[in-house]
Every structure is written in C-alpha cells, then in structure tokens.
Amino acid sequence: MKVYVNGNISEEDKAVIPVFDRVFLYGDGIFETMRSYNGVIFRLSDHLDRLYSAMKSLKIRQSLSSKETEKAIYELLRVNGLKDASVRVTVSRGASKDRAFNISQNEAASLVITAIKFLPRPPGYYTKGIKADIARSRKNSRSLSTNFKVPSYLDSIIARNEAIPKGSFETIFLNEAEHVCEGSVSNIFMVNGNRLMTPSLDCGVLPGITRKAVLELAPYAALGIQEGKFTESELKDSDEVFVTNSLIEIIPVVNIDSRRIGNGSVGPVTRKMRSLYGRAVEKETAS
Ligand code: PLP
Predict the structure, then answer these.
(1) CATH architecture of residue range(s) 124-285
(2) Predicted TM-score of the model (pTM)
(3) What is the mean pLDDT of residues 103-120?
C-alpha cells in the first residue's frame, strides 16, 4: 500500500517520519478519518473544514491548502487503485528540536495520508444491532482538546478493550457531570417518540461529520431535534439508540450494560435514518 508523507508517495514500509515528531511524542496534532464510496469521499469539504479550523485554533501551520490536501487524497486513492476506502489524514505540528515540549513556532507541520480498502462491518451489526456498555472512565468536557479530533485516544482504547470481551462493540463515555457524552469512536443518538436527542457539543463531544448529516436529515423523518444534557438513565430508557461515525455510518444499539433498549431490536426510526443516510451518500457520491 502506498502512503503520502509531506508531498511524497511511497510504499508504506519506505515512508519515514522523524522520531521527534510531536504526534509521536505527545499526540500534538490533528487527524481526520473519512470514507470513500466508489472513489468519492462523502462530505469531504466538511472533513477538510474541521481539519483546517482545528489547525487554525491549535496554531499548526500547514503549508498545503485545503484544495491541495484534497488533490493529494484523491491522488493517493488513484495510485492505490482504491474506490471504497477508509482514508486518514494526519497533521502533526512537526518535529521538535531536541525533543522540546514547548512549541517553538519553527516546527514545519507534517502531513501524512493513508488509504486502506474499506472493510464493511458484519451485516448483523446493522440488522440486529450491537451491544454497548458504559465506560468506567469519564470524558472531561472542559478539556481544551475535547472538540478536536486529536490523535491521543488512549482512554478510548483502554475503555474499548474492556468492552470487547463483554461482547460490546462500542463503549459509551459519560462526562465528569455524569452526562452522556459519546462513544469511543462515535457520536450517540437517542430516540423517544418522534424526538431525536443527542448530547450537545458542550458535553465534550466531537462535532462529528456524521452527527451533522444525521441532524440535517432528521426533519425528513419528521423528527424534532433536541441537543442537550442527558443522564445514563435517560439513555437506557430511550426507545432507540444509535451511534454514528464516518466509517460505520449509523449502527443501532439494542443493549447497554446488559439492559435491552426499547424492545431489543432495531427500531423504525433508526431504520429510517439509515435509509435517509444511504440515499444522501448515493446522491452525493454518484460520479
Ligand atoms: N466521536 C469520536 C470520539 C470519534 O472518534 C468519532 C470518529 O472517529 C466520532 C465521534 C464521529 O465523527 P465523524 O462522524 O466525523 O466520523
């Protein structure tokens, strides 16, 4: 598989980044994960906007423009012969001189792009739904990096690996105020009657691109939207729950902490939202 590193495309085992790179040392960077359908990336401009606005906030100076990054992504898909792919763009603040912790303003940001064949999740995840559990640890809604897609996922990795042996596909974080926050790699939605509920961004959630698409599509399912603060009991008492991200799209959650959600099967609203999302993908990625 070929990868892109700072303007060069090479075989993955020939690509190099400095050992003093700040993403490697401190997780000091930002990344995006996106999905290409038949050679077209869904909501690419949203992904690039989120990436570039995060870089601006974090004062990471990246020399490529958003348009040039887009060109590099599509070039990488082309040279790898990929149509249905999971694409990751990682930007690091750059290499630190003498392993320094402080930012010197002299670092040259680096850009790495990788693309791998998209591996669909088992169909049963969508038709039967998945189990999830509540993570032991808490997200900190006041963390300065909470709304950015930063590469330090250690808490999520630990929580997810505690969930997997219990048969859960996703683990859901509450925040320090015990409000529902998000999954380890997903945003979370609850359905009650004709209301679609999701934690507001100030709960410490990533402003997901799929979350945004789902909120845009909700009125087409005649759903009212409530972004706010929700308790664990409200989550578990919901009629339906689903999680979202750019790769998995919308996955129904039918069981949390061994408790059935609704009647324990995939609900009509989740099915409707999946179908609306599928249509949006088809329309926007038709070439
Ligand atoms: N929340 C977290 C912590 C994530 O890691 C992700 C995606 O990886 C999401 C939410 C969903 O974001 P998106 O819909 O932009 O993929």
Answers:
(1) Alpha-Beta Barrel (3.20)
(2) 0.97
(3) 93
